[in-house]
């Protein structure tokens, strides 16, 4: 073999490699992956739906509006697709406090970069706040799927017709899907419809990821959920949870979690503690059950209540508690 021909064959194989690399880049994968924002006014069931779609509990739920304050990514991966759900705080009209501003900003920014929007509404109840969300979605470039949740409240489907007509008049949407997250009715239709619009793309997150939030963060959310479920109206919006310690104690074979419940006023502290410490004990017992599941082991939980005045109306305090605009997907 002459020197010339061997050079030639080397340059041919280089060309081949470059061509192959270009082909690889243009490969059309069958795999589908993308982001799905779950939006709507408070209390329509966004978190319940997302938890059901994921088959596990990530977002906290309660019967009180505005339970969700942060945006959480729940990741559902199969051999064929990866759907990344972006749960948002319920969008609402009222309130001048920093926390309300923060929640609306987070919700607004959540649907800027997604592939599909799930607009969750409550069967039979179309409010001013729903209208405001509908208005924001009017010029949306992404497909909008209207999820009519809580249809279990209407055993007679005929009674839902006026509601469906009203929504149809006020918003142009890609599809409308009636479901009950609570009774697990028709939830698979949501995924079927989402998959029609999810792009062909490789997985965004590694396949064993279920959320991009830390265990520590999820632990704080679990405690906050129990707090909101246990207490009356006046405390929960003035309360938040900060995890001070989260560590595995080898000798005890269990996790040690120290959490601070921050409230704004002395009266609230009394309510959270309860007579003879009964209320906080009850919150702790409920939270520990879920925390055991979270860490898949045993948890020793210590809860403390502390007053931090006006934390919900102080931008710096909010940032220090993790309500941070810089958090990104
Ligand atoms: N009857 C009925 N209740 C439901 C259904 N889905 C959710 N709920 C209840 O509605 C309440 C609110 O649910 P969430 O999932 O916390 O609502 P959300 O929209 O995430 O609320 P925010 O966090 O305030 O934005 C809870 O008490 C749920 O149990 C449903 O299909 N039927």
UniProtKB/TrEMBL annotation:
Residues 66-70 are annotated as: G2. This is GTPase Era. Residues 87-90 are annotated as: G3. It is found in: Cytoplasm; Cell membrane. Residues 32-200 form the Era-type G domain. One of its GO terms (cellular component) is plasma membrane. Residues 223-309 form the KH type-2 domain. GO terms for molecular function: GTP binding; GTPase activity; ribosomal small subunit binding; small ribosomal subunit rRNA binding. GTP binds at residues 40-47, 87-91, 149-152. Residues 149-152 are annotated as: G4. Residues 179-181 are annotated as: G5. Belongs to the TRAFAC class TrmE-Era-EngA-EngB-Septin-like GTPase superfamily. Era GTPase family. An essential GTPase that binds both GDP and GTP, with rapid nucleotide exchange. Plays a role in 16S rRNA processing and 30S ribosomal subunit biogenesis and possibly also in cell cycle regulation and energy metabolism. Residues 40-47 are annotated as: G1. The lineage of its organism: Bacteria, Pseudomonadati, Pseudomonadota, Gammaproteobacteria, Thiotrichales. It comes from Thiosulfatimonas sediminis. It holds the Pfam family KH_2. NCBIfam families: era (TIGR00436), PRK00089.1 (NF000908), small_GTP (TIGR00231). Monomer.
């Amino acid at each position: 073999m002459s020197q010339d021909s061997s050079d030639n064959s080397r340059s041919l194989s280089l060309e081949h490699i470059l061509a192959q690399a270009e082909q690889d880049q243009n490969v059309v994968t069958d795999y589908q992956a993308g982001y799905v924002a779950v939006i709507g006014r408070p209390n329509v069931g966004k978190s319940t739906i997302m938890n059901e779609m994921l088959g596990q509990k990530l977002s906290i739920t309660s019967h009180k509006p505005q339970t969700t304050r942060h945006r959480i990514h729940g990741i559902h991966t199969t051999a064929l697709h990866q759907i990344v759900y972006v749960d948002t705080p319920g969008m609402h009209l009222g309130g001048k406090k920093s926390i309300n501003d923060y929640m609306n900003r987070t919700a607004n920014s959540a649907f800027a970069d997604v592939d599909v929007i799930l607009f969750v509404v409550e069967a039979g109840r179309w409010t001013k706040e729903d209208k405001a969300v509908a208005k924001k979605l009017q010029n949306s470039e992404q497909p909008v799927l209207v999820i009519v949740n809580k249809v279990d409240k209407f055993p007679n489907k005929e009674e839902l017709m006026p509601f469906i007509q009203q929504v149809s008049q006020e918003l142009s949407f890609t599809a409308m899907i009636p479901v009950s997250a609570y009774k697990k009715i028709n939830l698979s239709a949501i995924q079927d419809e989402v998959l029609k619009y999810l792009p062909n793309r490789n997985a965004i997150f590694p396949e064993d990821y279920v959320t991009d939030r830390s265990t520590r963060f999820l632990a704080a959310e679990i405690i906050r959920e129990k707090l909101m479920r246990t207490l009356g109206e006046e405390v929960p919006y003035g309360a938040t949870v900060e995890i001070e310690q989260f560590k595995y104690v080898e000798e005890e074979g269990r996790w040690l979690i120290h959490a601070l419940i921050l409230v704004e006023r002395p009266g609230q502290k009394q309510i959270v503690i309860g007579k003879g410490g009964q209320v906080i004990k009850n919150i702790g017992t409920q939270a520990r059950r879920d925390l055991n599941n979270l860490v898949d082991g045993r948890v020793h939980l210590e809860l403390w209540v502390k007053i931090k005045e006006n934390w919900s109306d102080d931008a710096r305090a909010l940032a220090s508690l993790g309500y941070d605009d810089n958090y990104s997907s």
